[in-house]
Amino acid sequence: MDNKYERIEDENDPDRCQSNNAGEQCSYKVIRTAGGEKSKYCPRHSSGSVTNKTNYRFNAQFLPRINNFADNPKLKNLGEEIGLMRTVLEVIVNRCQNDMELSMEADRIAKMVREINQLVVSCHKLEEATGQVLNKTIVVNIGSMMVSILSKYVPDKSILDRVGEEIYAAIETCASPTLNDGPIPQLNN
């Protein structure tokens, strides 16, 4: 089986992976076996099997929610497991019909939240270890490189200084813990 990552050349390619990433269809080609049988998914979204998208054999009713969590671009590792745990938490909370039932489930909910937290922390550690996370220093360096590139085409040092200051301010804004996953703030012109 050929499991290499191969980008599609045409958005309407019949061999395009059927998974979604952040609301957009994946841009890689599906897996094909030596016999020509094809999966619906690329190597990233397949468990390596032509017939199964996940590592688990979940009931079809749970797959969309689990994959919704697992395909989150912010979760590169352990995504499926985090998705499963969040789905279970969602089921527990949604079963509660009133404050009393919610209070009775508080221990289970707290336990699930702790377990999800442990998985997320583990996932983040794996991302850091594999170089999938950019720290602020790297982003600031990228901003400096951008200003350096602009200096080849913009001779006015005062303009370059303002551009550099705005890039640094944008990095500070995006690094703010209050920004979380909200929309990217618009900078004043």
How would you describe what is shown here?
The protein has a two-stranded antiparallel ribbon. It contains 6 helices and 2 strands, in the order ββαααααα. The chain folds into 3 domains: 1-53, no CATH class; 57-131; 134-189. The chain has 189 residues and is an all-alpha fold. The model is unreliable at 48-53 (pLDDT under 50). Helix 1 crosses helix 2 (79-95) and helix 2 (79-95) packs antiparallel against helix 4 (106-129).
Give the oligomeric state: single chain
The number of helical segments is 6
Query: Could you give the order of the helices and strands?
Result: EEHHHHHH
- pLDDT < 50 runs, ≥5 residues: 48-53
Taking the sheet with the most strands, its summary is: 2 strands, antiparallel
Helix amount, in percent?
A: 40-55%
How confident is the prediction overall: mean pLDDT?
A: 78
User: How many distinct folded domains?
Assistant: 3
Strand order of the largest sheet: 1-2
- Helix/sheet category: mainly alpha
Q: What are the main properties of this structure?
A:
single chain; 189 residues; mainly alpha; 2 strands
Quick overview of this protein structure:
47% of the residues lie in helices and 2% in strands. The chain is mainly α and 189 residues long.
Task: Produce the secondary structure layout.
Blueprint: E1 20-21, E2 24-25, H1 63-70, H2 79-95, H3 99-104, H4 106-129, H5 136-151, H6 157-174
Antiparallel strand pairs: 1-2
Helix pairs in contact: 1-2, 2-4, 5-6
